[in-house]
Amino acid sequence: MTTKKYAALLRGINVGGAKKVPMAELREVLAGLGLTGVQTYLQSGNAVFASPEKDPAALARELERAVEARFGFAVACLVVDGEYLRAVVEACPFPAAELEGRQLHATFLSAQPGEERFAPIDGPSYLPEEYRVGDRVVYLYAPDGLGRSKLGEALHKPAVLKGIDATTRNWNTVAKLVELTAD
Asked: What is the SS3 assignment for 125-174?
């Protein structure tokens, strides 16, 4: 049976003391689901693993149920395969190699939003910050970092993301996840 490498992106854990998920316990949860080669990266909800399952959405739902059962709170999880992560990097509309990792971010989405959701965002008024929408991802160039980004706030408003699970990673993390999911 062949397996495929995936990254699980858990939203909003271990931020400001809320929704504590120790990485050792997260690895146990993933291994308990029969996933192999389990590794975590940083403390912010990034894990990689191999699975014969071919449906990332099914893996995400299974992981959400297991995390809630283990820790007692709901956490949105996105699961993407290594090929998708590489495609995200290759399609980046910004000069990633010339930027610091904290200046470039990828917001991964559970579904592709329609262009109309972004219509109220007046991009030029946020310059030098910029964004571009890709395949289930929003790329954000924020030269002063995400914590100070007004455009980042606008992109995460409910009118833009309603009904879509979203989680953001800086470019350093994206690059590391590509490395960890490489065959």
From this structure: HHCCCEEEECCCEEEEECCCCHHHCHHHHHHCCHHHHCCCCEEEEEHHHH
